[in-house]
Specification:
This protein is of the alpha/beta class. It is 27% helix and 21% strand.
Length: 275
C-alpha cells in the first residue's frame, strides 16, 4: 500500500511539473502547474511565475545577494498565497531547470511552502512532491516593470536594462548594463546576449555550481564582446540602477581585461575605462 501511494505521488508530480530554464518562457500550459525554473528568485521572476498562473514555483537563490534580492520574489509570493522556494546556487546551475530538479537543494522556503513541509536542505525532488499539494494562490502579483533607459556615465552613453531579455539586435555597439545573471540560459551560447554589444555586464549570481554565473563571459569572448560580472553582494540582481550605483566587478572576460578592466573595479569606473 505504501509503495502504491508513493507511486501515485510520483505520477502526479510528473504530470504537474513544468520546466523553464527562464521563467519568461512560461506560457498558457503553466496554468495551475508547479514550475521548476532556472531563473533567479527576484521580484520580476516571481511576478512572471504568478502572472503565468503557476500554483507554486521553485527559483534559484542567485547567491541571495545584496538586500536579499535573489529571494525577494520568493518572499513576495507569500503575500499572494503562493508557495515558493529557492534553490541553493551552489547545488544547481542557475539557468537550468533540470539541474535544479535533479541536483538542487532548497536554501529558502516561504511560509506557504513551509506549511507543506518544504524546508531548508531538502532536495528539490522531494520538495516537488510536497509542492504538488499547494493550494491555488489567493492573488496575483502586480507586473514588475523592467526599466530600459539610456543614461550617461561620464562621457559614455550606456543602455541600462533590468533584464537581458530587453536587449535587441538593434543595440549593437552599445555599452549595456543588465540586472540579469551571468549564466548561460540552458547552457546555450546563443542566448548570451542578443546584440553584438561593445560591452555588457551581468550579476555573478553567487557564481554558483560549476561557476555557471560567469559562463556568459567566455561565450561573449568568442564574439569579441567585452563582458564582466558583478559581485552579487555589492548590487541587487535584477536592478541595473543598483549595478551602476554600487556594483563591483567580480570577473572579466579576456576582451574586457585587454581594455584594462580589472576585478574589484567599480562598474562605473570600468565603463569610463572604455573611453
Amino acid at each position: 500500500m505504501r509503495a502504491a501511494v508513493k507511486q501515485n505521488i510520483v505520477n502526479r508530480m510528473t504530470s504537474e511539473l513544468r520546466f523553464y530554464d527562464s521563467i519568461t518562457d512560461a506560457d498558457a500550459d503553466a496554468q495551475g502547474q508547479i514550475g521548476i525554473s532556472g531563473s533567479h528568485g527576484g521580484l520580476f521572476a516571481a511576478a512572471c511565475a504568478s502572472r503565468a498562473g503557476l500554483r507554486a514555483v521553485v527559483l534559484n537563490d542567485a547567491g541571495i545577494g545584496l538586500h536579499d534580492a535573489g529571494i525577494a520574489g520568493v518572499q513576495a509570493l507569500a503575500d499572494q498565497g503562493m508557495a515558493a522556494c529557492a534553490v541553493d546556487c551552489t547545488s544547481a546551475e542557475i539557468g537550468s531547470a533540470r539541474d535544479s530538479f535533479e541536483n538542487g537543494f532548497v536554501s529558502y522556503a516561504n511560509p506557504l511552502a513551509i506549511r507543506l513541509g518544504v524546508r531548508t536542505g531538502l532536495s528539490v525532488k522531494n520538495a516537488a512532491t510536497l509542492l504538488v499539494n499547494a493550494p491555488e494562490p489567493t492573488g496575483i502579483m502586480a507586473a514588475v516593470p523592467e526599466s530600459r533607459n539610456l543614461i550617461r556615465v561620464g562621457d559614455m552613453e550606456v543602455l541600462s536594462v533590468d533584464s537581458a531579455s530587453l536587449i535587441t539586435p538593434e543595440d549593437a555597439d552599445r555599452i549595456i548594463v543588465t540586472g540579469s545573471h551571468g549564466g548561460l540560459i540552458g547552457g546555450d551560447p546563443a542566448r548570451a546576449c542578443k546584440a553584438a554589444a561593445r560591452f555588457v555586464s551581468f550579476s555573478d549570481a553567487g557564481i554558483g555550481k560549476n561557476a555557471i554565473g560567469l559562463s556568459r563571459l567566455p561565450a561573449l569572448d568568442q564574439r569579441g564582446i567585452a563582458a564582466v560580472t558583478l559581485d552579487c553582494q555589492t548590487c541587487e540582481i535584477g536592478n541595473s540602477a543598483s549595478a551602476l550605483q554600487t556594483g563591483l566587478v567580480s570577473a572579466t572576460n579576456r576582451t574586457a581585461e585587454a581594455l584594462g578592466i580589472q576585478r574589484g573595479m567599480p562598474l562605473s569606473d570600468a565603463i569610463r575605462q572604455l573611453a
